[in-house]
């Protein structure tokens, strides 16, 4: 049986077996076992089988498969040529198996390049004999032909172009070839094939036919099947189609009217495609072509903006308008004028009845078009501003004036945008109006009624923009502007509505960026005048100092501000100004260094700040006698030191440690009294140091001193807290985990002996501070767990205070952070939760009701710092205890403080795991209502009005409650979630009762609680309405 | 309720920053300071020895402060966010609800607890057919949100509406209000209007 017989036998049953046969034939050709002439001869009876089309098709498939498998150089040039001739000749009389013919030709081309004539002939043959392609029903057949044509277009482009040039009849048949194609894979190729003649050939005579051939597919509504193996998206097709339409300006006469026609469509997607295509056309057609349609386009596109439907369509239409202007911006003066004339006219008309949605739209149009190029902006300004100012002057309506200023601001914004992107601005037109604009805006900000907030804000915004356009205002004008805004910052005393100081400060900060010199020389000195050497009362300087501190966010003027603050501080000291004033100045410095923009070097705050600012302050503190040190001042200086020192290099730090601060450390070592007064400074100072910089002996000595200070001395609450934080910091940061217990014993701070018998409050607090350090460190798990259990053993007999102090274990402390070089184990919360909660819950189960409080307080203290995701898996076990926390007596306000965080946990549970709470719905609701009930009013106001519908009969009054407003508000927030988050059948039975019981909360003494009560009641009332449907 | 044919297709809309907001109490002890964040010790201090000196004493939100009475601004905040039935904007930005048109009358004698809230509405046009619906929505909102010691009186402002008297009569009549709220369509419209209330 010959290969062809075998192939024909297999092909309909087993495609891959047939392929193997063909490959086998190819191998035989290579090894010369089989000659090409014999193969063809064998083929002949089948390929010419008159009555059997399928057989003819299959035999040409065989030929294609063989050629596909054959290696290069097996067939001679002559043989390949003969084969091409053979296939093409065959096509002229028989198109059966045309897909395979195309595949065979593709294979032959791969084996050796064709000359121009051959390529032309291949194309011509298909155009003449396969026209239109849609006569071939199989997608794969058409696909193969399209691939062949695509190949010809890619590799033999000049040959095909010359064919077109010599034969005027080619193009119409070529276009007809693709008519009616519907398959997305094929269309991808059709679009890319048609783009070649559109872009490169002279298609004038057939432009419309070509355009129609592609535009027939507009808009693409293809939706790929869910598991599309070809990965073609609608966007791919849209992009190719857009490329075709935009490829030739010859299509413009057909494209623009057709596109604008589709713009009237009601389908948003069609509109979107139209706008994208118009943009592509404007960019790619010649400007002189666009010129012919610019006004038509404007007339259509403006409606998309003036009668806005969807925001993104507005933006696309604006972009298209801007692109048209861009096309004319280089030397196309006439077209630009013609395009802008109707735009200016129309926008001017809309300005007349400002402020309306249309005047706002006009502002957006002007912004978009002006942004196209500086020359365009200049034209717009010359066309719009005269009208705008005439209207402004002829109207007394503040609303109208505001609308006009908003439009002006839009135009100014275009200038700033262009400046930011590096364009050289043309200021000619704007300059002739800048003084007008400035006067108008200055008058508005300075003398308009304070209640006209939006008017004043728009003007303020305009002033910022005017100063931001370089070389627009004269120096004198900039000064006046800065002066006016500074004046607002300093002297406006409007409380409540109408207070725009915050915006004025923000405006001044922006001006500090664009005109730093003026702000430095005018605004800052003016503000400094408000900061006397020694103020007589506390309030006069406060707002100025705050404004100054906020301005420090602008790098340009940062140094000026801190230098001035520092000199004012030393003047204040010299004049023995009140300490509150000195503190305020120090805080302003701290604010500037913390939230402002100090200069940087090598990724850290510039190191010279430390010498300039921290050191002189430190010197002052060191010089002061221990008794006369002010702890607040010491702390602020400590924090300034911290922020300037912590990111410096180890080298810098150790120099500081060994020299300038050596005395501080020495002093700490020797005199206990001085340790205490320096503790706030020392705490922040040691927080800044890198662990390797510090001498271990210094740490040990300091720990010992701190420990004994805490144990012996009667300290104030504040200083106790500082000393405890200091211990935590030192233990976490400087002690080696391996020798932890030994080091602690050495310092007399081992927790187990500390808590051995009837520990004092101080011993308990030290123990908690040390355990906290270890928890955070996360490297001494055995010791940590021992300590935690010793602490837990305290609980049965613990006072309220002790139980609540458990909260310190996980309480966040900004000092214990990575920037301060502490070790913060990422899992420390999870571990502590896993270690403590089971014991606490077990103890709660067995404890007498009267003895539960310490456990509940400790549990609440721990849980309030645990992220919800961590405690979520244990939620089921936790809920009963959480509810018991809400039952804690309200008599002690510190006990109440644990309730809001617990309510927050319940709130999170309601949001994320409502099902867990469902079974507790009844007890949850009772508790939430109790927590929410307002304090009872005094008896005198008790008489009940006859016609009110209250139900507070004496018997059903809620128990006396003094839950804090925070608890009440939070409880109401939780209660609000129930109707929407728990299952309807669970909560519906409570609805009536809750709506009734919420009535007293509507009259809560606190407004914030009332607001929550209204929301809550609304949520529950909303339920019935659903039921009625 | 023909929404395609609006009574007033292009009403004036107030800028949000021009609407009245609660003024800070002039005598409030202190304005929050920029530096508060720096001075407040974020770290809880449980080392206090004296439990009877609760930290809450300086907390401005404690009950020791005088009662914050329900005032005109609070009423305004309750109803200003109701949406207009034919425009997607709030009654406040359409200036239907205005702060100066809200009046609270405190109890006349010490034996009575009854206060009265009077709200005058300004329809966007003098023949706005939706005046009644807006009035009803305002009334429903206040009934839900105010404690029962308040009597609620919602009216169209004099001279702002061609049929003000008829509408006012309807709004003041408890029976007719109750009957109106039996009407499913009307309830639906009002629920949509109130949906934007915080």
From TrEMBL, chain A:
GO biological process, one term: DNA repair
Compartment(s): Nucleus
A Pfam family the protein falls into: MMS19_N
Chloroplast is among the record's keywords: no
Keyword rRNA processing: no
Domain MMS19 C-terminal: 544-979
GO cellular component: cytosolic [4Fe-4S] assembly targeting complex; nucleus
Record-annotated MMS19 N-terminal domain positions: 40-306
Region feature (Disordered): 936-965
Gene3D superfamilies tied to this protein: Leucine-rich Repeat Variant
Source superkingdom: Eukaryota
Entry keyword set: DNA damage, DNA repair, Nucleus, Repeat
Low complexity bias: start-end ranges: 936-946
Family per record: Belongs to the MET18/MMS19 family.
Task performed by this protein: Key component of the cytosolic iron-sulfur protein assembly (CIA) complex, a multiprotein complex that mediates the incorporation of iron-sulfur cluster into apoproteins specifically involved in DNA metabolism and genomic integrity. In the CIA complex, MMS19 acts as an adapter between early-acting CIA components and a subset of cellular target iron-sulfur proteins.
Protein name from the UniProt record: MMS19 nucleotide excision repair protein
Organism: Cryoendolithus antarcticus
Biological classification of the source: Eukaryota, Fungi, Dikarya, Ascomycota, Pezizomycotina
From TrEMBL, chain B:
InterPro entries for the chain: FSCA_dom_sf, MIP18, MIP18-like
SUPFAM superfamilies associated with the record: Fe-S cluster assembly (FSCA) domain-like
Gene3D superfamilies (UniProt xref): 6.10.250.1280, Fe-S cluster assembly (FSCA)
Chain ranges of the MIP18 family-like domain: 72-150
Transmembrane parts of this sequence: none
UniProt cross-references to Pfam families, sorted A to Z: FeS_assembly_P
Protein name: MIP18 family-like domain-containing protein
Keyword Protein transport annotated: no
Taxonomic path: Eukaryota, Fungi, Dikarya, Ascomycota, Pezizomycotina
Keyword Membrane: no
Listed Polar residues bias regions: 8-20
Keywords on record: Chromosome partition
Region (Disordered): 1-68
Organism: Cryoendolithus antarcticus
Biological-process GO terms, alphabetical: chromosome segregation; protein maturation
Acidic residues bias spans: 56-68
Family, as annotated: Belongs to the MIP18 family.
